[in-house]
Amino acid sequence: MARRNIFFTGIIVLNILGLIYAVSENRFDISKLIDGDIDNVRAKSAECVFDKQIRELGAVWTPDLGPPIGVLYCMRCTCVPYHKKKRIVARVQCHSIKNQCPVPTCDDPVVLPGRCCKTCPGDISPDTVQDIVPQNVAEVEEKNGKHYAALLTGRSSLVLKNEFVKPIGDLNKNNVVATGRFSMHKRNLYYSFYISENAARPQSLQFIDNQGNILEEFTLSHAGGYVNSLYQNASRKVCGVWRRLAKDYRKLLKQEKMYAVLVWGTKDPAEFTLSGLITKNSALQTELLSALLEPSPGCDSNSMAGAGGTAIVSLSTTVTPSINVAIMFNGLFMPSELENVPINITLSMDDRRQVVLQEIAKVTKPAIDVNVVNVSATITQAHLRYLTRGRVLLSVSSVTKPEALRLSGNIITKASCEIFQSTLSSSNGANPDSVSGMAWLYLNNAGSLIYNIQIDKLPPKENPPMITLIDTGSKKKTELESLIPYFHGDGWANGTLDKLTPRVLEPLYAGDLAINVATTSDNSLIKGKLTAKPVDEARDAPAPVLLKREYSNLSTATVGLAWISVDNECHLHYDVSITGIGDRKMELWMEMYPFIAPGAPFINKELESFQGNSVEGSPVEVLSREELIKLETGVNFLKVKDASTKVVLLMATVTKVSIPPPCRPYTTSPDNSIPDLYDHPQVVSTGECFFEEKFYKNEEIWVSSKNACQMCFCQNGAAKCDFMTCPEVNCTDGKMITVEGECCSVCVNNSIPPRDQKCSWNGKSYLPSVKFHPFLIPTGFDLCTECYCDPSDLQIKCSRLDDNEKLCCNKNNCNNKFNINDPLSDDFISPDIPDYSVKHQGSEYSKKKENFAAKILEEGGCKNPSNPKKPFANGTEYHPYIDSLGEYKCVTCKCQNGTPNCSRQHCDAQTCKKIQDIKRRKEKFNQSDFCCSPKDCRKLRHKKKHTS
Ligand SMILES: *[C@@H]1O[C@H](CO)[C@@H](O)[C@H](O)[C@H]1NC(C)=O
Ligand SMILES: *[C@@H]1O[C@H](CO)[C@@H](O)[C@H](O)[C@H]1NC(C)=O
Ligand SMILES: *[C@@H]1O[C@H](CO)[C@@H](O)[C@H](O)[C@H]1NC(C)=O
Ligand SMILES: *[C@@H]1O[C@H](CO)[C@@H](O)[C@H](O)[C@H]1NC(C)=O
Ligand SMILES: *[C@@H]1O[C@H](CO)[C@@H](O)[C@H](O)[C@H]1NC(C)=O
């Protein structure tokens, strides 16, 4: 178990109203103890985080505070719900169980290890240490009880019973209606909504109990209607998942006591809402098509205000096809109609020329919010085809007032949000070219099948391949449809299959539909069976990525498909499916590069360890904004590694992951160009510089690859460059020659020096005899110093040009001329220059300086690497001077008897908190003010998490 790394100096137990809270003396820790470390563990508002574990409402456990306190055996903690306005949120409450201990029966009772109460030998211990509600025990799913539906209209009983939402009345002028579908998988509730076309996308979705308490809320769209999901935008559906429903909420759902509420507007109370009770309906298990019913044109808009309905349509496509329609509706009753009211149900072609089905159903006891009727009939093959193409209109009307009281809507694609996907791989093993692929499909509102198929490594001679849909459920493995037999350069076949027939729809939902890719030489080169997947956060991505085989020892049939996306709360989600990998332990990693260039810095994140052929989730550690933006602007590699050997088994390139606007970094450059991002030390904590397609480390010096006279250095992510003018050379006896890749020409006599003999200084080599100005950080070329590569010993000799005042003034401070009388004047020269000599040897001022410095050194002083004339006196403390940073406050040195003792100030949590505060206030962050970079801080947090 992960333990929190907090060191308590003591613990006080407070007894407030019978509840005992564990409070550390350190006030800073209480919130952490109670609310959890939100930085590291992500939980919903109605969940408790304690000791880095997420616990659901109602969970009871014995708290373990980790070292040095350990388990508090006399305490019990519970995750309890409490009201925060209309919301139900969770809180950890802990109380002592000591007073529940029975009176011991002997004189010398003892506390056994791991127990709270004193007991005598033979007593049955009353307190056992265990989580009373076991965590993460997946309940056996009820086969028939996992599908639910809701009709959301202005006539919901929730609106009538509670005043927590404004009655919509005038607000629902357009008579907006919505319907929802819900299904439970493990402890997650997947939801889908269809909403009237005249309504905008709602702002949020709430789940509410029958008292009007908000149990959970989801943001559906941001200001400006931004929808970060290709599928949801294309289908106009609202899709998502409520993960980890607490046991009590699963119970509410089963008892049909939970409401779904769609909220438009952000004000509180919400501007406009639609709500509906979530109910079971057995027809949902076989639903193939759905309908949203709205008041028909020409009806009595007053009597029908707020009314609506939905239909759950099942089909059987045997020789004699049949249809079953379950309808949930309201609003079709006259005030006088109280019992056994007949309702006219008509299915007709949408041009109303042909009737498919007509039946009168009776509603025994009309309800204001939801009534359910069911009709079944046999239909013709032709009608079946029209149905799957969205050409059939369903109308439900009052028998007494058929024109005034009528709801209608076309029967269209199933309301649930589903994407069908498959990896494509060779089944027979013969796959010399390692061809692999993937496919993903969905149905749009017009009933067309949108397909995207990617094939990798298809030999050009095999293009175009034959791509077909096959019904594997039928005995003959019937080929149903032929898809685009044409590949674009990018290896994709994208298209739409209009006029979908029931022969495709039925196997599609039954999980029998497969995609087969055949070539002239192989009639089943690669194939895969499509599976329906609910649209969760990861599937909001515009497309999945193909995980290609990296490790050649794997079978050529190994391939994967991964969805990656970032949700409105800025969390990364992934969903990976792999074929042909066998049963081994694996790890999922994300490697993030700003772009691919030599030396590019990268961030490597382990997302999850897993076993089996699929993994879905979200990293527990939240990605920073700077990391998120890399997913959008950078190049990222998703890698599946073997957990023991760390060999990369599969890999995919992930780019352009769209990041919702609120999740972008606070500071981005105005034009958003990528390299520009790297000029902001606060954005790139790594400090590398990008220059001429290459990355350089902080403080590195280099010569431009395009201009030999340009030299640069990297300072906190910014490349600082300077151009050199070569010193004048008096070449009366020789000949000037220019060597390629060298900035300054060299004067050679009769003998040309061999090329491989060069002087070398500061990472650059110089031709013998060449004269140059040294390049210094941070000022650039020092035109007041002239250096020379001595051909006799290949040493660089430099001299100060005091006489060339005009030139020196350009670079040094002219207004601040050297004060000849001041022995400490900042007559700066890089100490790195060997054999430094001042031209006016013997002049009074230089002697004075030398004497002064020599005296300090004699008395136990330390050399000053940045200014030889200003040594540090014995016993003084100082910060070293680093060219690129100036005085470097993170290192403190003390001069002791001629030896500097330096120590670096380590990055600590306090400094990190300061940095975080600055960032939170969106103030400019100057890294040299602190001894930590944001990266150090993240490392610190990470380390804390893992070493504890
Ligand atoms: C969303 O859908 C609309 C209409 O279908 C389309 O015009 C728009 O480009 C889509 N936006 C995105 C981000 O896909
Ligand atoms: C039911 O409605 C259809 C068309 O809406 C109409 O033709 C038919 O007469 C109605 N049947 C009854 C019994 O009202
Ligand atoms: C096909 O669709 C994929 C995924 O949406 C996309 O990346 C690709 O560019 C498309 N190719 C063509 C030719 O439309
Ligand atoms: C070049 O050097 C020669 C002798 O070494 C000297 O006579 C001459 O004046 C110098 N020329 C210049 C321009 O400095
Ligand atoms: C340097 O200072 C220390 C402590 O002040 C002193 O003991 C030592 O003698 C000094 N060294 C010299 C060489 O003066």
Description of the structure:
This protein has about 950 residues and is mainly β. It folds into eight domains: about 5-120, no CATH class; about 145-280, Immunoglobulin-like, CATH 2.60.40; about 280-415, Sandwich (Immunoglobulin-like), CATH 2.60.40.150; about 415-535, Superoxide dismutase, copper/zinc binding domain (Immunoglobulin-like), CATH 2.60.40.200; about 545-665, Sandwich (Immunoglobulin-like); about 725-810, no CATH class; about 840-905, no CATH class; about 910-945, no CATH class. Helices cover about 10% and strands about 35% of the residues. The chain contains twelve helices and 62 strands. The protein has an eight-stranded antiparallel β-sheet. α11 crosses α12 (about 935-945). Residues about 1-40, about 130-140, about 665-685 and about 810-850 have low confidence and may be disordered. Bound molecules: 2-acetamido-2-deoxy-beta-D-glucopyranose (5 copies).
Q: What topology emerges from the helices and strands here?
A:
Elements: E1 11-16, E2 19-24, H1 27-35, E3 47-50, E4 53-56, E5 60-61, E6 75-84, E7 87-96, E8 110-111, E9 118-119, E10 147-152, H2 157-161, E11 178-185, E12 188-195, E13 204-209, E14 214-219, H3 230-235, E15 238-242, H4 247-254, E16 258-264, E17 272-280, E18 289-295, E19 309-316, E20 322-329, E21 341-349, E22 355-363, E23 371-378, H5 381-388, E24 392-398, E25 406-413, E26 418-424, E27 436-443, E28 449-456, E29 466-471, E30 479-482, E31 492-497, H6 502-510, E32 513-518, E33 526-529, E34 531-534, E35 545-549, E36 559-566, E37 572-579, E38 585-593, E39 603-611, E40 614-617, H7 625-633, E41 635-642, E42 648-655, H8 674-677, E43 689-691, E44 694-696, E45 701-703, E46 710-715, E47 718-723, E48 735-737, E49 746-748, E50 759-761, E51 764-766, E52 771-772, E53 775-776, E54 780-781, E55 785-790, E56 795-800, H9 805-811, E57 836-838, H10 844-858, E58 877-878, E59 881-882, E60 886-887, E61 891-896, E62 899-904, H11 909-920, H12 934-947
Parallel strand pairs: 56-57
Antiparallel strand pairs: 1-2, 3-4, 5-6, 6-7, 8-9, 10-11, 10-17, 11-12, 12-15, 13-14, 13-16, 16-17, 18-19, 18-25, 19-20, 20-23, 21-22, 21-24, 24-25, 26-27, 26-34, 27-28, 28-31, 29-30, 29-32, 32-33, 35-36, 35-42, 36-37, 37-40, 38-39, 38-41, 41-42, 43-44, 45-46, 46-47, 48-49, 50-51, 52-55, 53-54, ...
Helix pairs in contact: 11-12
